[in-house]
Amino acid sequence: MTAQPPDPEPEQTSREPGGGVRPGDTPPDSAQTSGLSHPQPMPSKAMPVAWLIFIGVLVVLASGFVVALALGWLKLG
């Protein structure tokens, strides 16, 4: 059996459909959350920069390979 809260006073209860508040009534206070409980750590910027440099080097090497093939500087096979 679950514990039931006592019935509120009839003159205190809402008569609106769905249990809402009547126009002009103030709704009950809700929980407020403001700020963080502790500072968030800043992520490192080293890995994204390293990946960008790595990808850039690969693009330059692949482009150079294609250009070398097109100009006949490399012979495959």
Automatic annotation (TrEMBL):
Region of interest: Disordered: 1-42
Transmembrane annotation, as ranges: 49-74
Source taxon at top rank: Bacteria
Keywords: Membrane, Transmembrane, Transmembrane helix
Record-linked InterPro entries: DUF6480
Protein name as annotated: Uncharacterized protein
Originating species: Amycolatopsis roodepoortensis
